[in-house]
Amino acid sequence: MTDARVAAILKRGVSEVITEEGLLRLLDSGKPLTLKQGFDPSAPDIHLGHVVGLRKLRQLQELGHRVTLIVGDWTARIGDPSGQSVTRPMLTPAEIEINSRTYTEQFFKVVDSQKTELRWQSEWYSQFRLDDVIRLTSRFTIAQILAREDFSNRYGSGNPISLTELFYPLLQGYDSVAIEADVEFGGMDQKFNCLLGRELQQSSGQPPQQVFLVPLLIGTDGHQKMGKSLGNDIGIAEPPREMYGKVMSIPDPLIIDYFDWVTDVPEEEVSEFREQLRTRSVNPMNLKKRLAYEIVGQFHGREAAEHAQEHFAQVFQRRETPEETHMVEARVDLRGVGRMVARGEVTGRVQADIIALLVETGLAKSRSEANRLLAQGAIEVDGAKVSGNPVTLADGSIIKIGKRRFVKIVDIAGRKRETPGS
After folding, report:
1. Which CATH superfamily is domain 326-418 in?
2. Distance of CA 200 to CAs 98, 152, 195, Å?
3. Strand partners, 297
4. CA 395 to CA 334: how far, in whole Å?
5. Through-space distance between the first and last CA atoms of the chain, rounded to whole angstroms
6. Distance between CA atoms of 75 and 95, rounded to whole angstroms?
7. pLDDT of residue 323
8. Which one of 31, 148, 293, 398 has the fewest beta carbons within 10 angstroms of its own beta carbon?
9. Closest CA to 209 of 222, 190, 226
């Protein structure tokens, strides 16, 4: 490997490697490595947050190493408590089976299926007996498990922690023993679990795995890590137009992270984009259009990316309507359906009750119908699917209902304030 190739793999889109020296020795050994990453099928789709680590696996596959993806059909029944303040509900085997089918299809949109082994935890855990469980738990103390930050915080604040949750890091760690992993990949929130896997391997007489940690991609809300349950995700199997629109909705401060972690845009260009944003010499909208094009092209092809880009420009920039669609204007006083957000008098944006807005403007016959549309994911605002209420609106915002109904918001109060002499 060239120094540049090593730097690209170990530096871009990487938070920490434990240990980098150990990993370099393994890479230089010439031995095909077993690269492990586990996924709990707690939701039916993979999103861009998962892609950060999967792209690293693909890069190492191209160097001749083999990926083992663990489908966590047992740990999914517990639900990874990382970052959770309360106990998660346990999934049923039927729910896990449905989600797993989708996961296994979507894995191979990123990693090479010919160089990937898919393993299910049930291969080894279905054979576990009580004495196996006792032997596993005897290797660690309660104090060691409670050292994990999320457990420690919950214990300190008096929030309950179930015994099954305490098993989660043990089960994930034992996966590394079961497949004799050389390197485990995970997000920064998996650091404790991955390091515990190293300890279990050593106590089992195996060489300790190296740990490759990637950063947590912030979702479209700009605040929390991307997650299906939070409604701030960008799924890799979503239609091109929807994917494009969601990327366009990310806050400007996330642009460089997305370029850096989930695209193949050369580092030199990304550095140039970073400098342009710092000096405000570029319109962030233009960079987001390039970003959305790159991401859609990665999963759907360049032709689909071009069509999605043209559709976005037509509907959301030129305010034109595609054929066979219906666009109307909703003339409302945004202050009457919401409250001004911070600095709202400057930005003209409000947090609006989308249910009340749809009913008051006649776009929905009743609140129950509006709630049904929301629950079905049939409402979009400025290209991003609405998953909760309230939503952020501004004068000129476009609300999409279903496939062919577009509503342009006209803030009559805001425009009146801007009219001289009014």
Report:
1. RNA-binding S4 domain (3.10.290.10)
2. 31, 21, 9
3. none
4. 8
5. 69
6. 13
7. 47
8. 31
9. 190
